[in-house]
Amino acid sequence: MALQASSILPSTLSIHKEGKSSFSLKENGFLGVCLNDHHKSDFNPTVLRAKIQFDQKSTSSVGAIRAQTAATAPSVTTATPQGKKTLRKGSVIITGASSGLGLATAKALAETGKWHVIMACRDFLKAERAAKSVGMNKENYTIMHLDLASLDSVRQFVDNFRRSGRPLDVLVCNAAVYLPTAKEPTFTAEGFELSVGTNHLGHFLLSRLLLEDLKQSDYPSKRLIIVGSITGNTNTLAGNVPPKANLGDLRGLAGGLNGLNISSMIDGGEFDGAKAYKDSKVCNMLTMQEFHRRFHEETGITFASLYPGCIATTGLFREHIPLFRLLFPPFQKYITKGYVSEEESGKRLAQVVSEPSLTKSGVYWSWNKDSASFENQLSQEASDAEKAKKVWELSEKLVGLA
């Protein structure tokens, strides 16, 4: 996500339906003459003959008008089912869209006028204020409550979304919890360690449930995107800064991450807030690849992950020590040169949502110094197919899908 080297420092033609005109045969009339009291005085041979002649002339005239309309009307071309073309707005859900990368992405997509953004957030009022603060047009977004730290909330969100009647074309799993200075673990409603429970398990259940909705989309390019992080990749400098991500043999995940009978950490080790975040990001990237292996060929859905760059000023670092929050942005701007603004990072994620050139599935996207996208390499652990399968199976059990 935003975290990079946070540990380096301590129009159409409308054809109107033909109604029953005054010249048509009605159930209670004869040759267009209604047999009510008002017209009974007209019902004599002379009047009737005159009415019939008028009807014939008028009908002929109407026919000429219709013929002229048919000759001059522009042709209307409809899209074939095979082409899966649609003129409607795309519909995208973005979790954690009330701030940071999520808000910047929502803004970038809404501004195009081609997307309706469902902002899935814990704090409804905060999200509303955020949307207004960046100038988002109300008709381009909807705010819905979602707390990823509660599996019941995830299920309720899915139910509410389906009741809205909106299609789902793209799901962006962006929200994240980062507690680098925490000395003791905190837990989700179901008792999972908060970072992994929110960042991975909450998104895992959300993605699995909404997969059916994505399958039903008629949009040209359906996508499921899970935001990754460079800190979860030990093949990078930032990924090698202690504590390094390491899922080990998954014994903690298998035990439920509750800190009671077993460790609250995935690898079964001592709790470390920064490592818990990094481990959750490895799970995110493994999950994306497992989705790709299991469902891409069958559904045509594009599954992707990305690292949009180091957003050093993001609220993700709000739990870090004040000195870090003061020094980290200039360090990234002037020393590592890895700094990316929230606005730029939002545009990058928006590209992965909508750009036709970024439809390859199973890819982890990054950007170079010229802001050009490229397929990046994941670390050995973050691309371990066997471990991805185990994480998937254990996660299914923990969220009640198996």
TrEMBL record:
GO terms for molecular function: protochlorophyllide reductase activity. Its main location: plastid. GO terms for biological process: chlorophyll biosynthetic process; photosynthesis. GO terms for cellular component: chloroplast. Pathway: Porphyrin-containing compound metabolism; chlorophyll biosynthesis. It is found in: Plastid, Chloroplast. Belongs to the short-chain dehydrogenases/reductases (SDR) family. POR subfamily. This is NADPH-protochlorophyllide oxidoreductase. It comes from Stephania yunnanensis.
